[in-house]
Amino acid sequence: MMRTRPLKVALLGCGVVGSEVARIMTTHAADLAARIGAPVELAGVAVRRPDKVREGIDPALVTTDATALVKRGDIDVVVEVIGGIEPARTLITTAFAHGASVVSANKALIAQDGAALHAAADEHGRDLYYEAAVAGAIPLIRPLRESLAGDKVNRVLGIVNGTTNFILDAMDTTGAGYQEALDEATALGYAEADPTADVEGFDAAAKAAILAGIAFHTRVRLDDVHREGMTEVTAADFASARQMGCTIKLLAICERAADGASVTARVHPAMIPLSHPLANVREAYNAVFVESEAAGQLMFYGPGAGGSPTASAVLGDLVAVCRNRLGGATGPGESAYAALPVSPMGEVVTRYHISLDVADKPGVLAQVATVFAEHGVSIDTVRQSGKDGEASLVVVTHRASDAALGGTVEALRKLDTVRGVASIMRVEGE
Ligand code: HSE
Predict the structure, then answer these.
(1) What is the annotated signal peptide range for this record (predicted)?
(2) Full set of structural domains in the chain with CATH
(3) Model pTM?
(4) CB burial readout 204-230, b (16+ within 10 A) else e
């Protein structure tokens, strides 16, 4: 039966995502009411610039006082799409204290303070949902938290940043260098004027922390995620990748150790076989590949950013939270019971592709091979091309720990015959 008193929603932020949330709430009002069991009403919109014209939004709802809005006491759900740590964190905790549930798209805040925010939601018997915080429209949080709640996830391997995927895809398909591809991404509006958060992997690391936490029922904070950006990837790296039947992607990788006793989370560029489903994720799309014990391999694909796709995820959460409120219940909160230790990067085990510039003379290959052997790193393949006494040596290893590989590279750099280490890239997804 339809309840006639509407559920009241406060929208914090009315930019690219917020304006789409408001638009869909209006245009789909009847469907949303039917799906929830009560109408939802936009009760207030907090913005920074009140004078901006906002099509479809009643100016009487607009306020610059977000704190007063979340303190009103009659708000059922606060939708936070302003991003950043403050004032979002204080507004969310204030919203819980004043009886509202919260839907957020704020990856940085959830990755940093998710545990404390969940605790605040629990204390007040309210919901905290954030499907939109990871990979825009793609359903990931709910599948991991609910659909796979009876399974055991062992690995999450994802392309969770559209800007960097666009740049790497452009480098792969056109042979462009990093700067040229970044300029194209900027001109087309994919990259921000300051692309640091994307290209240095901060954005992806926040998403990796959230995914790892949910997948492994363990608290994983942003600081636990090893992060390397993709600004050093070169056209030569792509040429090497091609020779191995691979491409290069910026990957977020969350893994359970082979003995199941610990987990790791990392973000870095990596070679991945062209046959892997993630290799075919083009342009600015996102995709996440999940490996679990019973289900096997699952792939989630779609637009990872943009106003409308992100609003889709926000609206899905809004419907779920509203249903919970009508039922007098709350949905799943934080699940961190496993409390597995998060291991440092040195304990990650994977394969490596190493390009060395070396002198081309008798004994060099043996010297290089000895260094690998001394550090317990087994070589899979070696490829050499030389000219005029100098050579390029590409070594691909079997699986080894990051610490062992790091020691190997340090020792290689000390060899007189090694002129330089041109690149080191991990090989994933095999
Ligand atoms: N800047 C991100 C991306 C979207 O390029 O995918 C928001 O997380």
Answers:
(1) none
(2) 7-134+308-327 (3.40.50.720), 141-304 (3.30.360.10), 345-427 (3.30.70.260)
(3) 0.96
(4) bbbbbbbbbbbbbbbbbbbebbbbbbb
